[in-house]
Amino acid sequence: MGVVSIASHGLSVAVGPGLLQRKRSNSMVGVGIIAPSMLQMGSSRSRKGGMRGIEVVAMASFEAGIGVMGTKLGMMTYIEPEGKVVPVTVVGFREGNIVTQVKTSATDGYDAVQVGYRRVRDTKLTKPELGHLQKTGSIPMRHLQEFRLQSVDGFEPGQRLAIEEIFKEGDLVDVCGNSIGKGFQGGIKRHNFARGPMSHGSKSHRQLGSIGAGTTPGRVYKGKKMPGRMGGVKTKIRKLPVVKIDTDLRAILIKGALPGKPGNLLRITPAKIVGKNIPKN
Amino acid sequence: MASSSLLSHSLLPLPTASPLFPKSSLAISSLSFSLNQISISRTGSVALHPLVRRCRESSFGIARAGETGEEETTAETGEDESSSETGGEEISVAVAVEEKPPKKPIVKLGDIIGILNKKFIEEAETIKVVPDIRPGDVVEIKKTKLNRRRLALYKGIVISKHSGGIHTTIRIRFMTSGTPVELVFPVYSPKIKEIKVVSHRDVRRAKLYYLREKLPRFYTFKKK
Description:
The complex is a heterodimer.
Chain A: H1 49-52, E1 68-79, E2 85-92, E3 98-103, E4 112-119, H2 127-134, E5 141-148, H3 163-166, E6 172-178, E7 183-185, H4 187-191, E8 228-230, E9 234-246, E10 251-255, E11 265-270
Antiparallel strand pairs in A: 1-2, 1-11, 2-10, 3-4, 4-5, 6-9, 6-11, 7-8, 9-10
Chain B: H1 2-6, H2 50-60, H3 70-87, H4 112-127, E1 137-143, E2 152-162, E3 169-176, E4 179-186, E5 192-200
Antiparallel strand pairs in B: 1-2, 1-5, 2-3, 3-4
């Protein structure tokens, strides 16, 4: 008895004598007897726990507390009452930060709070997205992000998150955002390599130099730092103090610089500090 | 400014086909400004920016039939546009505006930094009065030093003023013990207890960096 190749993962199994082997195709054509061990093919992909009883492995790590989403507005100076001058980034908040879904281990396999941000016109969202938001009767929002927590008690769909309650002046926060894209960059900018001499007969100024040893190992190691695309990726800046919270303008002043340009979406969460509030898995 | 154009999307919800605002027959001639939602039709029913439309309907009542003169409507739309855009007043969605209390004007995200700067400057002004300083002024500054009871006194000529909201700084040049010194002071800092303009020298520049090449007598001042 033979088994025909199961095309979705490109697994091909030995075929018994006398059977024609079918060519691998991209359609899910499984003819023949499939051994029971073949069923468990997927790697740990998050799926609804209730569907097939497969154990779900959630990919995100725990947050230290519920966070919010904001918009980077720009930077300015803040002069403290004692006279110290502090560079701050101003983060504004559009209409949003409304809980759209609460996920629990019973229904989804993990505990998380899904929060929406930035109200948009109905026509800007797809019908599936709109339907998901209409389930809780919330406004159409562009961005949805989950905050995985230890316990989701006290959060209901439709709840508006108030910044003044979550953050206080002096709190430390972690800020995530897409960094500014720098394009294709060389080793010096991308990996802080050192330049070669600019004169004295040198022919190598900004090159990588050597990329490996000789005959042994006879190859370049994987992960060798080389030129490539830099920036434009998700970046997290940790342990930034909140300098001031302005409730009338709905703005937060956070010390230091944040990823991205003004207008960038930011995800602000309480800082995860070892020994203080990192939740144990 | 790039940031304000990015963030000019108003915080007000913009309904697409709200039953409260059917496309009524407003006889409005072609409008000079261009918005994405305008469609100018011959019959005269125009889909305006909801903010402008609401302003019209609430302030001027029912839409006019196509009998009013063109000039009148252009003048009024001109007024409407200016009042709705510059005033930034949020008119409630319901048609009966007079019943609801006046709401706060919406703050555009791009203006927040400007407003914060003004706020901080107002707070700093309550502590000390900051006079109007121009380059060429001879200025006396009293500043607290760390762990010192007595205030430090600096007297020199202002060679530049950098306007940066709360972090507006002035550069003072003077001579101490035979050494020329340039100091930068943030004008609104609480460490600076007093700024007094003593005299003024006529200059024809905003930045007096040429004094660095000049004789020291041009930036030497006697402290009394």
